[in-house]
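look at this stuff:

>
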Amino acid sequence: MKTKLDRLAHMSGKEVSYRLNEALRVQTDRFRYWLNLDLERDDEFDELLKTYQGSFKSYLESIALQRFYASLTPQNRDHTIDVLLQIPSAVARISEEAEQLLEHRVNLLGYTCVGLGQEIDWHRDPVTGYRWPKQFWADFNFPSNSGADPKIIHELNRHQHLPRLAKAYVLTGDERFAREAVSQMESWMNQNPRWEGVNWQSSLEVGTRVLSWLWTVFMLVPSKALDERIACRIGRSLLQQVDQVFRYPSIYSSPNTHLIGEATTLFIAGLVFREIPRSAGWRSRGKTLLIDEMQRQVLNDGVYSELSSYYHCYAADFFLHAMALARAQREPLPEAMWKRLESMLEFALHLTRPNGTIPLIGDDDGGRTLALASEHYGSFRDGLSSGAVLFGRPDFKFAANGFAEETLWLLGPDAAPVFESLPSRAPSRLHAFCLDSGYFIQRSGWEEQSSHLTFDCGGHGYGSGGHSHSDALSVTLFSGGTELLVDPATFVYNCAPEWRTFFRSTRAHNTVVVDGMDQSSQGDTFNWQATLSTRLSKQLAIGELEYLDGEHDGYLRLRQPVIHRRRVLYVRPNYWILVDNFRGYGEHTFDFMYHFAPGAKLFILGEEQNGEIECRARIDRAALQLSIFASAPMRAEALCGQVAPIQGWTSTRYGERKPAPVFKGTIRGCAPVAAMSFLVPQAANERAGMRTRRLRVAGGPAIAGAITDGEFEDICVVSQESSGPMRLMDFSMSGELFWIRTINGAVRQLMAVNASSFAISGETIFQERQPLSHVSVHLWENGMLIEHGDEEGKVYVRDLRDRQFQRH
């Protein structure tokens, strides 16, 4: 009751009014359901039948189908089949999937080849056997009223397998597939009268099922199995389901992808069924919501505001479906929507790793807008394929790695020659710095074996942050064709609170846990009791060097507060340096976590008392060398597949989990504490790798390390306090961070951050009273080039022979 009162206190007057009206609608419908008052009556549908001589199938074929996607119109159908036959392996895959579906075996989220039984019970969870009660839809209270996960029953009843059956009919003309799809829709209608049961409970699930049915019906229009009787039944049920979405959109209950998905359904149904008078309301509300939600839920940098990579693809896909049909039907949408959709696809482009997959940052829903070919968003190459055609983008085509089947269905057969006519060109940028969302992506190149790193300096996203994780300053790393450092993703939402807690906890991510606590305090399944804020103080891209500096305040709530700051220095193309600092006071436990992909083999070496640890990981043909130099002793251990406490698990799909090795390095000491970590991806058969060693610094407290990189030896020096001059070998310096590239002991390049001086053997390179934001120096035998970050565009060349600066 206290929680409900607190929520009520934070509601606006508009929200309170809306919820009261919605509650009144629910109560009215509840009485109608109990009394069975005209639940199947639809005067507008009956009038439509009169207009078309009682034939709904004739209306579908001659009118509605012309307003659906171009791939299915009668004039394009044969052309679509011809193009489909040219997509490698599509025919065999389609037939194989359809034969499996004839046996009532389906893939549900992370559960593969699930048997539904000879007679499908649409209220039975086929994974657990739990049968959901037949009651009024609004009387369900998830997840407290059962021991089953509603995600599974919802996924089954999205009916996204039905278009796959219908697709097999389109391709082969085999009536078995059509009969099975029609039979399943009819059995669903028999078991799910209006408003009865769990399958009416969520407007998003109802809307997704509507999209599945629309595709199925329009694919089956030529089939004898879709006779007039069943066509009319399906038509009435479709309109009822769209009405449910229209009457109960997730305006305040789930104003995220739920609302975008519902708007997509209303908009598409409103475009297709224009002869139904109330469809104008569907179309208008759907269009208004799509416009408003793209503005509200998509950030200026093109990232979906819930800060989940999976939900980003989910939202982008809904917009793709709605906007593609709008363009085909000449339904105008604001130009700003198209620009923002293009930005969403640009982010997906940079998020996509060399093998086409994306890191699963934040929650993973497990489903799709439409599963005609791909069943989830582990890859969004199909979206990039469609984006290449819509926006004429050669870089999208490059990342798509071929014309996608989804693009054929979504944009029609004429999209194939458009795609083929585009040149395929790798993007020019090797990084994406998304300031609004706090996502930063770096890569060594666009080749198959290239390295790809993400750095998360974002917060909890839109609203309650329900789909975000406690993962600030976490990284993921992909190289050599495989994942090395992984984000663990989701596994499950409901019915397993201890697992839900772990997968969104700080200890499940590649960051640092202080005193065993999460950066943010978890509430219930989709809420947080206390959240952190993040700040990016600096980003630099100087030649082959990229530098990021971020921090979060999640541990200010500790009795003895600390601030976690992480700096990322990328020396393209070979390695990264992570520098972690903890400002504060008091004694704490700092757990440095690095989560590796399942199947990785870890080898840990080092001198724990000196805070020097080396971890080598091998997986498939790739390896990662992780070298840590800490300011205090560090205890290192490898964990995998623990359940008490839970640690060492990852998930690639909702409902699935796998044990995966974790490196855990623990420091117990008084703040301030610091550590420097080298991340060096390499081939598994590369024996020596890039050697690292720790260097000792005189002067103030600092950490220094060196790494061999071919003919170079690179040195990184980080001051813990920036209080005074430091001395290392022939160098003396004052500042926060220095990176020095040498050849045979001679300095060739220098980058300094927040620094006031640097000298070599007493020869001053630069010296200022106040620290400079950054300094970049290139040296050769008789001179040097210096660029000061605080004086943009001003470069100084120094001739060492006369020791004078010449300004250029």
The radius of gyration is 29 Å. Residues 430-685 form a domain with the Beta-galactosidase; Chain A, domain 5 fold (CATH 2.70.98.70).
